[in-house]
Amino acid sequence: MAGNRTYDECSICLSLPTDPHILPACKHYFCGACINNLRPIDDELRCPNCRAIFTQDEIHPYIPPEKNAKYCLDLECSPDSGCKKLHIDNFFTDQPATEYVPPPPPEEAPRPATPETWKPPPKAKYCFDVCCPGGLEATCGRKHESDFGLA
Fold this sequence. Notes:
Residues 10-51 form the RING-type domain. This protein is mostly loops.
């Protein structure tokens, strides 16, 4: 039965706490009637859960947090208006956001040459100029496709 106990119940009467009260030293809470009827042992009051020592004056009413937080969706509602709901301003700090700086691009790999930018190697034995007439009319001094008799 102890394994089925939830933290929303009084550990003295095992029901939902009525008029819940909390022990500040250990933060355990109980029904107001249950904790106020607790008998001292050796002139000391002890928490029924953890045996922490407390006095009658230390017992305080416990206000449980709301299970479903209510948000104010009215954009015109000022947080100072007395509205008890959570406003979007509650979630932001006054610190400016840091500006996103993208990482630098990786070092670019050499791009392949285009017909406009390609240059033949300086010691090339063959003529790569498509406008060169080749053959006997060639003045470049290099070999041409027509020199091989393939055409």
